[in-house]
Amino acid sequence: MDINSLLSPQETPRETPTPTLSAKPPAKKPRKARTSKVAQPSPLANTTLPPPTLPHNAVVQAQHGAVSPSTMSPSSGNRLSATSTPPADGSHTKRQPSTPGMDTLADLASMQHHQQTARANAGGLRSDAIYENPTSSASVLPSLRTMPRPRASSQLRGGSFDVNMSDGPASTPSRRLSTSALSEEELQVVAQSIDYLSSNPFAYESHLQLINLLHRGLLNYTGSQSSSAAPNDAHDYDLLQDLQSARQVMNSRFAMGEDLWADWIDDQILLARSLDDRISIMELCQKAVDEESNSAKLWLKYGNFMLSLYQNANPQDQRIADIGEAPTSHEWSEEDRMMTREVFTWPQVINVWERGTQETSLRLSDSHLVWDTYTQLLLRELASSSLQELIARINYHFITRLQTPHAAWDQTFQAYSNFISQYDNASYEYTMVTANRLGAEAKDKWSRRETFEAAVSRANQRADRDAELKAYGDYIEWELGQSHKKNAFDFPLTSALYQRAVLRFPANTELWEGYAMLLYEEITYRQPEGISVHPILERATRHCPWSGTLWSQHLLAAETSKLPYSDIEDIKHKATSSGLLDAGGMEEVLKVNTAWCGFLRRRAFHQDSTDEEMDVAEVGIRSAIEDMETTGRHKYGKEYQGDPEYRLEKIYIRYLTQSRNWESARKTWTSLILQRGDSYDFWIRYYIWEMNMWSTIAYNENSSSGIGLSKPVEATKVLQQAMKRPKLDWPEKIIELYQYHCEDNEDSQELQSSLFQAWKAKRAVQKRREKEAMEAYEAAQAGALQQQLQAQQDVAATNGDSVNIGKRKREEDLASGDNKKIKPGVAESTETQAEEQQPSVPSLLKRDRENATVVVKNLPASTTEQRLRQYFRDCGTINSLKLTPEADGLSTTASIEFDSKEDVLTAQTKDMKLFDGNAIEVKVGSGSTLYVCNFPPTADEAWMGKKFQKYGEIVDIRFPSLRFNAHRRFCYVQFKSSDDAQAATELDGEDAGGELKLLVKISDPTHKQERHGALYEGREVYLANLAWTATKADVKKAFSKYGKVENVRIPTKVNGSSRGIGFVAFSTKDEAEAALEMNLTMFKNRILNVSMATNDMAKRQANPIITSSSQRSTVSPNPDLASSITNGNAQDMASPTAPAESLNKVHEIQSRTLALMNIPDTVNDARIRALAEPYGELVQLLLRPDHQGAILEYKDVASAGKAALGLEGQEIAPGRNIKTGSVADMKQLKAEHKIDRIVVGSGKPSAALQPAAPIRRPNQLGARRGGKGGLGVKRAGVGLSGDRAKPHGGDIDRGGVMNGDAEENGKAKSNSDFKAMFIKK
What are the GO BP annotations of this UniProt entry (predicted)? Predict the structure, then answer.
């Protein structure tokens, strides 16, 4: 029979009758090496079966209808085959007899249809990361509620739910739910849950919610939850049938869990009236403890129910008086008692309690609840018989218990003491000493676990599920961490702990996986008898049917346990038939298919396998590949690119290789190039496969002939083809492998050719890397400004001043005193545009330090930067490198910043390689840098280091440049490891003094917030040609008629005068647009220009950083004069036409003005003020990052002199000392040019080695004048003799105040006079 016919669309199950085959299975024949019988060797064939329409199970509500047999569940083993047609009545017909091999092939085809249907009808969320997101129960369960599924008809027979398979949706009449036991809101939730489950029958949380609500109604109705309410007969509860049916449906699809079983048993006991009811309860209890065998709660209910039955049937038996629960309240007839005595015997009661004691013995906290009752029963039986055999049995029972750690060990020891004193008093002392010795280890085990048990108990009592899960997690971690070598690890206790955890959290897949791994480890290394993973995984998949990981492990465990093929096939069918796997994405389905196909391949090449088993494997693997491809295309469309790891295809290639069908295997590799051709990992695997094939074929063909091995031509072609891929993710690795391959396997001619091809490929890669770097550079340019301004906005938002300290760039030349006179009525359009040039492109580029840095550990202590730079130079451009010695002095850690992320990938290839004898560790440094803001204005590197040093070793602290915005206040703190940085985030929100709360986050440049604020929301207008005398109040008053004015800003010059421009922010965009009506209107005698504000660097200038005291010691000069002084242009005022009074004021101000130089552009005005104020009262502080300095104006000359001497040489930043001098000296310095990239060869000095400015002391009135001016005065300025001071060759004589001959007519001042002048103060 042709295998392809099983998968052909022309032979669907509804069209083709089942062929009659021989019922006698053929004898197994030795398998021969053969080629594949499949015509198309590629697994990615385009012809696949269209998915048939098989409905899902449905749960709906109806009023009437007779009970009909429901279809079998997938677990029943009776499934539709690929060649059978379901009858109209829903019953199943059996397949005609056939050989086992053909039955298997038909089943495979049938399973393919079921899988396609289930997944086609299951929703699942569309996501780009289909395979990359592992799914936990927490993420799967909520999505089940939103999975759209086809509505399938089902009927409620007598008020109960019935599982019915049909060919299409059918509407059923709904009845109104009513009961006094539930509120209207609760009834509405019940109705909604029933309606939702009719189309989503596998929604676990909806099943759970429905059952709990109906159960609550039953308790309310019978008064079980309230002692004051009058009890009602449970049989009269209106929703009783709905509750029973909901439980049955839930149990048919999911595991019930401890709590649901307990509630079910309680309800059935409440309803029981006849002997049949009691037998049903016993069977229900047995099912519950079979499914949750470790539950003390369920064993107590089971045992107490058996005791209750025995007490009612045997009221005269004193052995069980006052033990267990009281007998049922309703009257028993004598006939009931007689029949119950025949069914429920004393040995049965003892057997239930004995089994419960054994199953719960390792529940350390509550096992005594079951054990104590069982012990009481044994002692009562002993009291009535006093058999010596029973005494020995009970003695062994006590000794065993005392050697088991449990919470009630002391009570157990006391009970044993009473037992021995009564039945073996002669040897009491010896027996008790021996018992105490035997129980010492158990007591020690309990004492070491008591803290964890208490934490679990407290969380359970508080009903805090999260705390309880964490307590179990900590407990398990501690158990797993115990040493095996010292015999501290206790496998039985750890296994029991896992059982308790999964009992409390049955839907937690991580707990089930951890439990399975524990068993795998025990079986692998210690090989104990009686331990099997299969039963645990069977429970796990019933509790978590959405986990592909658990199903795949279940399949593997079944194979390892050597279960029959039909059982393993049934497991796979259960996994894929419900559609729950799709809730976790394609990855969960793929895990199951991978495990299934791996099993088929191993089975096909087992030493006893047959040709039919090989056919089954080939069809099964190809069917799985085609099924996954079809399902992926159906669900995700063109976005679906297949499995990135091509797991099924690799299994198929392995199958074809073992079948010696090498050409088909090679075609399969070729078919994968389209989707996987840009992965170097794919090409390396392909190359290794070709080399294996070459070695196998070459040795087999040439070993007998004695001819040398042929060249691996196909392997060489693979590498050549890989090098031609323009988007290969790691072409350098392929080129390197190609060179090694040719050197080892090719002749000289091919080797020579490979050199050229490798050289050509390297050049292409180099150009590609340059292009990628340029694209990254341009992308960074586009986003650098936005990221920088966003950080400022975060700071401003935290401080509550987001309007005034927003995203606006400050002027580059803060001291610009341009004072052009503009005639009234002329628009000031060109002045503001020309005042500031756009910052250069490189200044806007923000390097991606966080993602382009690697941390290199275990370097030798003697490592130098040059040696390390040479070692990593082939990885890419190194921007910065910093070495940090370890505390032990034996090694060094380096932080290396590369130019791009691609360089980091290359650097990682050196991980664990030798560097001067040490195996170094190279890790990506991402996540090790903190973004910190909202700290005190005076905080510096030392403050940051002290604040963060307790969390780990700090590699670097970086403050931003204030050149373009002196209001910026944030920094970056880089740790040696990401763990240290993560720990330091606990400072986020810490009080930093005043109203400041620290903001500490992991720096991630890839996550940028969208800009917002008045400018970016279109709520701000720009005013040009604004009157010089216009104030904020004037502007606000003029524009308030258009809407609510949130803020008005009028940028000013250094001297405090208006720039003639302004910004007005409104509350809405419409208000701002309405304000455009003011354009070209007269305002304060000038024609006003109004337009929408834009993010233009030249327009959006802010005020210079000037901080002034309330009053000066003298009256301030006019703005033009003050501007000239602060800009070092006092010579402009030394003209013959300048009034004497103005010159006196200029000289007086410059004598108490001081310039600080060599100030890093990362230092703000607050830090400078903190250094300067101890020397005297400041009148004005002007920050000049554009000249690496700041200007200080003191209230008196003495303070300026003290500051000049005191601040000279002080360290303002690591490696930067302050220089004092005049404003003119400072103006000669250019803006700081930082070079923090490593320069190879000659280059400019680093920013930390800026040239020191000459030291200048402030000139005094009447002091001797040389060729240089004083503070704020250029050479040959005011008071100097010379032609430059006297344009017409004459002296300036203004009452003897400033005479050029002062030095000749009076006594020259000395340094002693200079010092004495302010010491007298």
Answer: mRNA processing; RNA splicing
Range of weakest confidence among 544-558, 613-627, 999-1013, 1059-1073: 999-1013
3-state secondary structure of 1058: strand
How many whole angstroms separate alpha carbon 1279 and alpha carbon 1297? 9
Q: Is-contact 1298 1150, C-beta < 8 A?
A: no
Distance CA 394, CA 358 (A): 14
Q: Are strands 853-860 and 921-924 parallel, antiparallel or unpaired?
A: antiparallel
Rounded CA-CA distance 592/164 in Å is 27
Max Cα distance, the chain (Å): 143
Q: How many CB atoms lie within 10 A of CB 591?
A: 22
Instruction: Choose which CATH entry (3.30.365.10, 3.30.420.40, 3.40.1160.10, 3.30.70.330) describes domain 1106-1319.
Output: 3.30.70.330
Q: What would the two tokens of residue 747 be?
A: 């002749």
CA distances from 88 to 92, 93, 107 (A): 10, 11, 21
Does the CA dihedral 649-654-656-661 come out positive or negative? positive
Q: Distance (Å, rounded) from C-alpha 1014 to C-alpha 1012?
A: 7
Per DSSP, the three-state class of 1024 is: strand
- Whether pTM > 0.70 for this model: the answer is no
DSSP, collapsed to helix, strand or coil, labels residue 427 as helix
State the average pLDDT over residues 615-620.
93
CATH class of 812-840+1011-1092: alpha beta
Residues 6+ apart with CB under 8 A from 837: 812, 1098
271 three-class SS: helix
Helix (H) or strand (E) holding 414: helix 409-423
Listing from the earlier edge strand, what are the strands of the sheet with 929-933?
954-958, 970-975, 929-933, 999-1002
Query: SS3 for 916?
Result: coil
**Any idea how long the chain is?**
1321
Write down the CATH superfamily of domain 927-1004.
RRM (RNA recognition motif) domain (3.30.70.330)
The span from the CA of 396 to the CA of 587, in Å, is: 52
Residues of the chain with CATH 3.30.70.330: 812-840+1011-1092, 927-1004, 1106-1319
* pLDDT at position 8 over 60: no
Structure tokens at 419: 């037992």
Give strand ranges (E) for 747-792: none
Burial class (CB in 10 A: 0-12, 13-18, 19+), 451: exposed
pLDDT tens for each residue of 901-914: 778 888 888 888 88
Helix (H/G/I), strand (E/B), else coil: 212: helix
3-state helix, strand, coil in the chain (%, to 5): 50, 10, 40
Q: Which of 362-366, 601-605, 1098-1102 has the lowest mean pLDDT?
A: 1098-1102
200 within 8 A of 206, measured Cβ to Cβ:
yes
Based on C-alpha coordinates, what's the Rg of the chain? Answer: 44
Q: Which of 1205, 1157, 1151 is nearest to 1179 (CA)?
A: 1151
Three-class secondary structure assignment of 1294-1317: CCCCCCCCHHHHCCCCCHHHHHHH
